[in-house]
């Protein structure tokens, strides 16, 4: 459960810095090495959240880390090794199928990307930029997004793969097919209890499952970005910073001072407002690269993920 990060630039003969090692140890709930399979990662991170979604809790899964460390692979996967999206939906449908006698359910999903602080629908890219609005109940909705209702996992895999091709990907010096946007798969499960007698009101539970494939969190020096890429990187880092600020505020909430959680700093945090605090369970899967050239990035990623571990939510 521990990660030890060694500094590649340390010189064993340097007497002055002998006691000032930058070696850091982080403890997490679960750590996977390079031999872990998609199945293992899924079972130990996400599988337990699915039952909660059926019973009306929200759940959020983040894939976080620098570019090229495998976030999109973890979330989307390949045809032979499907990622968390597909496995989670598979389990969701199985779980709902088991309760089919007692309840009616609908599952709707939408797949969108947040790029340069604007929202694009990946299932219908021609619809242009979409707005975030709040409905009368105070929950955040995306106006005009395509919602697909299907209970066939195969169909969904095709939709997601097609949607993923629409994602904004640009080559940077660090990764040839770097995702430059945050992709959010939003699955809403509405479960209606069938009443045997007409007088008793129906019980409706709504659970939302968010699976977020974040854009790469690397420094501009690493990607050698200039011009448009540089601006784009600034937007990415800005939304990740906003997410970090929300995580910080949420994890310090039990502290002495009452913390204000600023969800409105970026579109990403505004969309995930219900799924970070409150009635929700959150998992962050941090990805790091074993390369010594990305030591700084790995260190920042681990610190960021370590903070996320301290979030306390009041359900």
From TrEMBL:
Chief place of localization: other
Molecular-function GO term, any one: microtubule binding
Gene Ontology cellular component terms for the protein in this record: cilium; microtubule
One Gene Ontology biological process: microtubule-based movement
InterPro entries: Kinesin-like_fam (IPR027640), Kinesin_motor_CS (IPR019821), Kinesin_motor_dom (IPR001752), Kinesin_motor_dom_sf (IPR036961), P-loop_NTPase (IPR027417)
Keywords: ATP-binding, Cell projection, Cilium, Coiled coil, Cytoplasm, Cytoskeleton, Microtubule, Motor protein, Nucleotide-binding
Annotated PROSITE patterns: KINESIN_MOTOR_1, KINESIN_MOTOR_2
Compartments (UniProt record): Cell projection, Cilium; Cytoplasm, Cytoskeleton
Family statement drawn from the similarity comment of this UniProt entry: Belongs to the TRAFAC class myosin-kinesin ATPase superfamily. Kinesin family.
Role this protein plays: Plus end-directed microtubule-dependent motor protein that regulates the length of motile cilia by mediating depolymerization of microtubules at ciliary tips.
The protein's name in its UniProt record: Kinesin-like protein
Organism encoding this protein: Mionectes macconnelli (McConnell's flycatcher)
Protein's gene: Kif19
């Amino acid at each position: 459960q521990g990660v030890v990060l060694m500094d590649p630039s340390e010189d064993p003969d340097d007497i002055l810095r002998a006691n000032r090692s930058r070696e850091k140890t982080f403890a997490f709930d679960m750590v996977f090495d390079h031999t872990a399979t998609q199945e293992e990662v899924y079972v130990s991170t996400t599988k337990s959240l699915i039952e909660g979604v059926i019973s009306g809790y929200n759940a959020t899964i983040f894939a976080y880390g620098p570019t090229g460390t495998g976030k999109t692979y973890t979330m989307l996967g390949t045809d032979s090794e499907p990622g968390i999206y597909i496995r989670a939906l598979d389990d969701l449908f199985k779980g709902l199928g088991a309760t089919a006698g007692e309840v009616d359910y609908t599952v709707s999903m939408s797949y969108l990307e947040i790029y340069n602080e604007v929202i694009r629908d990946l299932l219908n890219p021609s619809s242009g930029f979409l707005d975030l609005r709040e409905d009368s109940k105070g929950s955040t909705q995306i106006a005009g997004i395509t919602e697909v209702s299907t209970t066939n996992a195969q169909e969904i895999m095709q939709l997601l793969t097609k949607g993923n091709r629409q994602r904004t990907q640009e080559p940077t010096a660090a990764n040839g097919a770097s995702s430059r946007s945050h992709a959010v798969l939003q699955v809403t499960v509405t479960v209606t209890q069938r009443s045997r007698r007409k007088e008793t009101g129906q019980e409706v539970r709504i659970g939302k499952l968010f699976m977020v494939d974040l854009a790469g969190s690397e420094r501009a020096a690493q990607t050698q970005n200039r011009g448009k890429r540089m601006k784009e990187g600034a937007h990415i880092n800005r939304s990740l910073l906003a997410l970090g600020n929300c995580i910080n505020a949420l994890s310090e909430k039990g502290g002495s001072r009452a913390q204000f959680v600023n969800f409105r700093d970026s579109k990403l945090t505004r969309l995930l407002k219900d799924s970070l605090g409150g009635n929700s369970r959150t998992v962050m899967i941090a990805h790091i690269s074993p390369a010594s050239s990305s030591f700084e990035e790995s260190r920042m990623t681990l610190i960021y993920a370590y903070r996320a571990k301290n979030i306390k939510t009041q359900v």
